[in-house]
């Protein structure tokens, strides 16, 4: 495939589409190809929330090949007509927890989930909270059209409480939770199952992996003595107390030791 006019096969499939309507933003193809290329030609399970006119499911089928089993979720029952071999459509709402539980009973664990549904803050959050555990341990969860996180009619707004972008900012803390020394913040299931979070304009990609606390390693031979006196001195203890107070007050000042 790959004509020079296109940056990757996905872009080529999209721009040469003469079939059902597909709706994607221009910067998505590079992102998708970067994170999803490795799944091509494999026996994988894909779940896209938001079927619309069915074109994106056809696009994924062309891109990933005949071994991919593709599921679509949409609230619009007319989408059922887009079912064909290896494409199955489930009708229901992505913010209905009971429906999502039924989906989890019906379909196998998913390699790739793309949330391109209704894009309200609640829909994105409920889907994420309820479906992330249905992604395989090395799978990927993608939420697209995060533009809506800044749009009033979707419940969005810059730094607005409950915006999915604001919600996802907590994920950055979660993947770093191994480093916390505060009892109120400890590694959680997110810390232990998600390796990375990638932010793009309009898209967030979360790659799963069974995680263990990383170790601080060294190899090679020291060229000079670099060890620091670690004995707890009065100065050191005083600095610790000062730092602890600043941390509790969430103030930035700190003393290095
Ligand atoms: C942006 S379109 C999907 C575009 C399609 N994925 C594509 O790339 O061509 C959004 C779809 O989400 C569906 N939708 C809206 N609210 C939903 C909900 N609560 N649950 C599931 N689907 C929903 C709409 O019916 C619509 O078909």
Summarize the structure.
The protein has 257 residues and is α/β, with parallel strands linked by helices. The protein is 31% helix and 18% strand.
Secondary structure: elements and pairs:
Layout: H1 9-15, H2 28-36, E1 45-49, H3 55-64, E2 69-74, E3 87-91, H4 97-106, E4 110-115, H5 121-131, E5 135-144, H6 164-175, H7 189-193, E6 194-200, E7 203-208, H8 234-248
Parallel strand pairs: 1-2, 1-4, 2-3, 4-5
Antiparallel strand pairs: 5-7, 6-7
Helix pairs in contact: 1-3, 4-5
S-adenosylmethionine binds at residues 22-24, 48-52, 55-56, 73-76, 93-95, 116-118, 123.
What does the model show?
The protein contains eight helices and seven strands. The chain is α/β, with parallel strands linked by helices and 257 residues long. It has one domain (9-208): Rossmann fold, CATH 3.40.50.150. Strands 3-2-1-4-5-7-6 form a seven-stranded mixed β-sheet, with helices on both faces. The termini are far apart. The model has no long low-confidence stretch (mean pLDDT 95). The structure holds S-adenosylmethionine. S-adenosylmethionine (SAM) is lined by residues 22-24, 48-52, 55-56, 73-76, 93-95, 116-118, 123.
């Amino acid at each position: 495939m790959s004509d020079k006019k296109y940056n990757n096969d996905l872009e080529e499939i999209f721009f040469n589409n003469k079939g059902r309507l597909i709706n994607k933003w221009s910067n998505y193809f590079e992102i998708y190809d970067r994170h999803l290329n490795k799944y091509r030609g494999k026996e994988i399970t894909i779940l896209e929330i938001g079927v619309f006119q069915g074109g994106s499911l056809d696009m994924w089928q062309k891109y990933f090949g005949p071994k991919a089993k593709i599921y679509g979720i949409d609230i619009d029952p007319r989408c059922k007509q887009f079912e064909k071999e290896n494409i199955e459509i489930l009708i229901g709402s992505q913010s209905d927890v009971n429906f999502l539980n039924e989906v989890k009973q019906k379909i196998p664990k998913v390699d790739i989930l793309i949330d391109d549904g209704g894009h309200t803050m609640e829909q994105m959050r409920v889907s994420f909270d309820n479906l992330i555990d249905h992604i395989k341990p090395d799978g990927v969860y993608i939420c697209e059209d995060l533009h809506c996180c800044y749009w009033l009619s979707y419940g969005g707004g810059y730094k607005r409480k409950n915006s999915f972008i604001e919600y996802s900012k907590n994920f950055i803390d979660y993947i770093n939770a191994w480093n916390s020394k505060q009892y109120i913040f400890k590694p959680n299931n997110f810390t232990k199952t998600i390796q990375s979070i990638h932010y793009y304009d309009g898209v967030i990609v979360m790659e799963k992996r069974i995680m263990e606390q990383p170790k601080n390693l060294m190899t090679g031979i020291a060229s000079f003595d670099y060890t620091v006196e670690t004995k707890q001195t009065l100065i050191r203890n005083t600095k610790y107390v000062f730092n602890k107070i600043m941390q509790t007050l969430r103030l930035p000042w700190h003393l290095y030791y």
